[in-house]
TrEMBL record:
Catalytic reaction equation(s): betaine aldehyde + NAD(+) + H2O = glycine betaine + NADH + 2 H(+)
Pathway stated in the Swiss-Prot or TrEMBL entry: Amine and polyamine biosynthesis; betaine biosynthesis via choline pathway; betaine from betaine aldehyde: step 1/1
Cofactor field: K(+)
GO MF assignments: betaine-aldehyde dehydrogenase (NAD+) activity; metal ion binding
Keywords: Metal-binding, NAD, NADP, Oxidation, Oxidoreductase, Potassium
Similarity section: Belongs to the aldehyde dehydrogenase family.
Role played: Involved in the biosynthesis of the osmoprotectant glycine betaine. Catalyzes the irreversible oxidation of betaine aldehyde to the corresponding acid.
The protein's name in its UniProt record: Betaine aldehyde dehydrogenase
Enzyme Commission numbers on file: 1.2.1.8
Active site, UniProt feature: K161 (charge relay system), E249, E249 (proton acceptor), C283 (nucleophile), E455 (charge relay system)
Gene Ontology process terms (BP): glycine betaine biosynthetic process from choline
Organism this protein belongs to: Rhodobacter ferrooxidans
Residues in Aldehyde dehydrogenase domain copies: 22-470
Annotated residues for binding of NAD(+): G149, A150, W151, K175, P176, S177, E178, G251, C283, E378
């Protein structure tokens, strides 16, 4: 598959170029090679996308939900058919190993499209008996939605936002991260091929300023952002100006709590998945691994041994288990955290080196304390912080002592403790004896600074529709005048 798309943008059912836009070089993170050259959206491209979305949305909303669903299901089938090629492009765009992109990225996107296609026809309002009179509610689409994505799961994010938006009768203008612009264009092509009318899913490329002009446009009813907390704050504030709906999927510093009685190999495996998958560039990662005193030595032994065996290398090789970070800048940032963690007194158990280019070895720090930077800030790289704890009450208090609230996990064989601890944790997405599994059937999202709203599951319906209440008078109007 060519990495260079036909044009930079996809607007009103077709590729669109405007070479007047600032150049956007797409680099393969594993080698730094330029794999595509795009242009940022100019005001004319942004205007064309918003105008197309506004014009197309009404007729789409007026279709029967099963008709919309039929088109989306076809798109999900096309994605599955083309998954090997799409996975390869995703690997080129992100540097993530092909063994991940084959199973995680587009497959999860196809699941979302299939799920919301199936769900949409059963979304209904309610009737409210009021004696002689009654009321009913309609669940209506919001209108034009803007989606803005991060670079870690670019195609999955595009699908997770497009699927509920489109299934429920909205139109979308999507801006991918400038670092990973390719997957969303594929989605636009596939949706068009599946029969989606022009204008309903548009892709415009660009940096933050392009996102900002979309978010502040008067035609936009909703903004769904996946990104960092600082960007989330800005976008949320801009959306508030126009009293627009928002979904904010932001960063985290999530706790993964491992009690003495946990199954050792599962707990180690989960901690590794929670820190090393996608080279640690996952928002919901369990980056504060709290390990109870009685299991600590065995846990660290097995963790070090299994981590040392992780295969870094060419992301296109199916045997490679970890690729590079997205950019040199991100690798610099991660190495800065490593250096400062050592300086603060954390004990380096393994890794801690930049092996070459954007590659950072999977890294484990033990004896991390709550006050250290490594326990407070999101690193977004393959760096695990292991913290010690003694009692359940203590660990719950410490786990909650953060402004983030995206995710949390607990490993224990004690059923009642598992549920008790989860109930006490302040996090939007939690796992018991598992970590980072995000099936589309389950709502996903954060509390506190990690976000508002939920993607996936039935919960997403509320974030892509609004309620219209209708009172029906069944008799003469009783006026006092
Ligand atoms: P950023 O916050 O830097 O960017 C997110 C998106 O917002 C990008 O497309 C970016 O464009 C765009 N953007 C930046 N500034 C503005 C602005 N002022 N107005 C509108 N749009 C803007 O995040 P990253 O791409 O660096 O992704 C990493 C972050 O995303 C991490 O914090 C991670 O935790 C979070 N994340 C959260 C997830 C969740 O579901 N909760 C999932 C995945 C990641 P550009 O990049 O082109 O500048």
């Amino acid at each position: 598959m060519r990495a260079q798309p036909i044009a930079s943008h996809f607007v009103n059912g077709a590729y669109l170029e405007d070479a007047a836009g600032a150049p956007l070089e797409v680099l393969y993170p594993a080698t730094g090679e330029v794999i595509a050259l795009l242009h940022e959206a100019t005001p004319a491209v942004i205007e064309a996308a918003l105008a197309a979305a506004s014009a197309a949305q009404g007729a789409w909303a007026a279709l029967r939900p099963v008709e919309r669903a039929r088109i989306l299901r076809r798109a999900a089938d096309l994605i599955r058919e083309r998954n090997p090629d799409l996975a390869q492009l995703e690997t080129l765009d992100t540097g993530k190993p092909i063994q991940e992109t084959l199973v995680a990225d587009w497959p999860s996107g196809a699941d979302a499209i299939e799920f919301f296609a199936g769900l949409a026809p059963s979304v209904t309002g309610e009737t409210i008996p009021l004696g002689r009179d009654f009321a009913y509610t309609l669940r209506e689409p919001l209108g034009v939605c803007v989606g803005i994505g991060a670079w870690n799961y670019p195609s999955q994010i595009a699908c997770w936002k497009a699927a509920p938006a489109l299934a429920l009768g909205n139109a979308m203008v999507f801006k991918p991260s400038e670092l990973t612009p390719l997957g969303a264009l594929q989605l636009a092509e596939i949706l068009a091929e599946a029969g989606l009318p022009p204008g309903l899913f548009n892709v415009v490329q660009g940096r933050g300023a392009v996102g900002a002009s979309l978010v502040s446009d008067g035609r936009v009813a909703k903004v769904s952002l996946t990104g960092s907390v600082p960007t989330g704050r800005k976008v949320y504030a801009m959306a508030a100006e126009g009293v627009r709906h928002v979904t904010m999927e932001l960063g985290g510093k999530s706790p993964l709590i491992i009690f003495d009685d946990a199954d050792l190999e599962s707990a180690v495996g989960a901690a590794m998945l929670a820190n090393f998958y996608s080279a640690g560039q996952v928002c919901s990662n369990g980056t504060r691994v709290f390990v109870q005193a009685g299991i600590k030595a065995r846990f660290l032994d097995r963790l070090a041994a299994r981590t040392a065996a992780i295969r870094l290398g060419d992301p296109l090789d199916v045997d490679t288990q970890m690729g590079p970070l997205i950019s040199g800048l991100q690798a610099d940032k991660v190495m800065g955290y490593v250096t400062r963690a050592v300086a603060e007194g954390a004990r380096l158990v393994c890794g801690g080196t930049r092996t070459q280019g954007n590659f950072v070895a999977p890294t484990v720090f033990a004896d991390v304390t709550d006050a250290m930077e490594l326990a407070r800030e999101e690193v977004f790289g393959p760096v695990m912080a292991v913290l010690d704890f003694s009692t359940e009450n203590e660990v719950v208090t410490r786990a909650n002592a953060t402004q983030f609230g995206l995710a949390a996990g607990v490993f224990t064989a004690d059923l009642t403790r598992a549920h008790r601890v989860i109930a006490a944790l302040q996090a939007g997405t939690c796992w018991i004896n598992a970590y980072n599994l995000t099936p589309v059937e389950m709502p996903f999202g954060g509390s506190k600074l990690s976000g508002v709203g939920r993607e996936n599951g039935h919960a997403a319906v509320a974030h892509y529709t609004q309620i219209k209440s209708v009172y029906v008078g069944m008799g003469p109007v009783d006026a006092p005048y």
